[in-house]
Specification:
Largest sheet: 4 strands, parallel
Shape: globular
Distance between the termini: 96 Å
Number of strands: 8
Order of helices and strands: HEHEHEHEHHEHEHEHEH
Number of helices: 10
Length: 281
């Protein structure tokens, strides 16, 4: 029977243990930055800017308005595991302070991507790319240059899509079309080239007095189109459109709200198609 060299075995075991410990403590340069976003607008731009360096999860479904959202335990857990939390600072994001407090994550960086204007417009998309690149650089300075480069590339794609959509919109004289629409769609309607005569916020705001005033304004301005917002009372303007004998369409404020519109490009394109379809008939 052969004798076991105890010293050699001990040395080998120690080597394996130390190697394992050192490997576990090695810098995780390839680990992704975990990001939580409040809306599909934010998650999409973050994925475009962050690429394979980020892992992003979202909390508000794209068909839901932020003001109607209530955080769940699973959302708190998402935040507790993240390095970066991005939100719009929309008036409707009232759940955010409570979500942050419940997560109780001292290592979490919080950034409000606060931009004036409609997030479905190209200009806001370009501004968002820069702001999100800055937020990612704050928590991951090593890859800052990559984030800036990706943001520039995304802005280029946004501009290309804007040029394409503007060319399609120019095929119709939209400047002569007066619209009554959801407050949440006013910025996109204006970008498309139509005139917004009056707006309403949601169904609750449409009291009999307010509705009558909107109808009176619509008749005076010869409004031919009423535009509702999918995520905030998608049938709010239905009665107004019927009173005016106007056409009505429903646009989306977020990617993914309508079928096959998971990207900003597809969502913007679908909104434009709905507008052109309504005015061309």
């Amino acid at each position: 029977m052969k004798k076991i060299n105890v010293a050699l075995v001990t040395l080998l075991v120690l080597s394996l243990v130390i190697g394992s410990v050192l490997n576990g403590c090695a810098p995780t340069a390839t680990s992704k930055v975990k990001v939580v976003t409040t809306t599909s607008l934010l998650i999409y731009v973050t994925e475009q800017v962050g690429g394979d360096k980020v892992e992003v999860v979202n909390v508000i479904p794209p068909t839901q308005h932020p003001g109607d959202f209530d955080a769940k335990p699973g959302d708190i857990q998402k935040l507790a595991e993240a390095r970066l939390f991005l939100w719009h600072n929309f008036p409707g994001e009232v759940f955010v302070p409570g979500l942050i407090s419940s997560a109780n994550h001292t290592g979490l960086t919080i950034a409000a991507i606060d931009i004036k204007g409609n997030w479905m417009t190209p200009q806001v998309q370009r501004e968002a790319a820069d702001k999100i690149a800055a937020a990612l650089s704050q928590v991951d300075s090593t890859n800052s240059a990559a984030y800036q480069q990706a943001a520039a590339a995304y802005k280029g794609r946004v501009t290309a899509k804007e040029t394409e959509l503007k060319a399609r919109l120019a095929s119709t004289n939209l400047s002569g079309i007066n619209v009554i629409g959801s407050f949440w769609q006013a910025g996109f309607i204006g970008w498309a080239g139509m005139k917004v005569v009056a707006t309403y916020v949601d169904p609750v705001s449409l009291t009999p007095t307010v509705s009558k005033d909107l109808v009176d304004k619509g008749r005076a301005a010869k409004v031919t189109l009423v535009i509702d917002n999918l995520q905030n009372g998608q049938d709010a303007g239905k009665a107004i459109a019927e009173e005016l004998g106007a056409k009505r369409i429903i646009l989306s404020s977020f990617p993914g709200g309508l079928d096959d519109t998971a990207t900003w490009e597809k969502a913007a394109e679908r909104n434009v198609e709905l507008i052109l379809g309504a005015v061309s008939k």
